[in-house]
Amino acid sequence: MRSTHPAWLESASGKSRSQSQGFLRRPGPGRGIWGAPSYPPPALYRPGHAEDEAARLQARLNKVENQLDRFRAMEFWDRVMQEIFEIIPAGGALTPAEILPELRGVTIRGATLHKEPLNLATLKKKMDVRVSHNRYFEPRDEGRYARKVG
User: What are the per-10-residue average pLDDT scores of the chain (150 residues)?
Assistant: First the structure.
């Protein structure tokens, strides 16, 4: 019986070129077409596995969202400190009570979105953190803060 393949596709063994080079091999166990993993993986067929996987993914999503919220809050408070840095005159010092009325309204409203109202106690706490990390401000007498030089 004559082959239906053109002669140029045939090798010396009588197989077509694609067969002799392994292109038409059958996939192994647990493998889909072209040796890729079959989908869904057989482990998903276990009873209760879908619920376990959904709970795992939900926990991971919550963790990533929490990290994103913390990052956004850090960025926001850093922008607030930059704004305060610009409010404090060079060579001068101000108290949080003197700084708070000078802040923009959008800054004060933005603090509420980051789960901390921008009041005197919060402002003092955030500025003290920057002082302890040697950033933006230097403490002065009577609860005043000055711009950090350099």
Answer: 53 54 53 58 69 90 93 92 94 94 92 86 93 93 90
